[in-house]
Amino acid sequence: MDISIIIIIAISAISIAGFSQPELIYKYQFNAWQIKERKEYIRWISHGFFHGGWMHLLINMFVLWSFGRSVQIYFMQSLPGNSKLIFLLFFLSAIVVSSIYSFLKEKNNYNYNAIGASGAVSAVVFASILYDPFRIIYLYFIPVPGIVLGIGYLVYSRVMSQRNVDNIGHDAHFWGAVYGFVFPILLNPALLLHFFNELIRIF
How far apart are CA 47 and CA 27, in angstroms? Predict the structure, then answer.
């Protein structure tokens, strides 16, 4: 069975449970102060399995469903080992890695909380861009090459993070995206050359 579908089912079930049990979210959401001072390390992973509402959950799971299968195929073709296990490790580690910057930034802020798998989902999308930078991605039904959307997404996430005018985890989006691009290259450095060859080929 497609491992991304298993992940979607697990996240959906836990998120839906959290909709009616806010105490679960309180216990498992990302809170850098709680991690630092109370050693509640499970929050590094657990926050990625909760979402703030149906729209938040549905968007993340739809994007994961849209890109997860193709990224697993890319992993199977280019990385050593079991592609399903690698994808699972990739996704779970992306939840952690995408939150490191927020941890360092907010570790003394008791009131900072975050939930959602957006950082890991961003990693999956950017892994896809690494393998196929000109794959068409539809943004509000507008076809955009992945590499173009990716650059715009990074710039947007960085700018919005610096402005800090909403409750969206733009830092996690940015660093999750970076991690998604880097992770496969760490396991197979030749993929970086593949990426540049794909960029050159279009011209």
Answer: 9
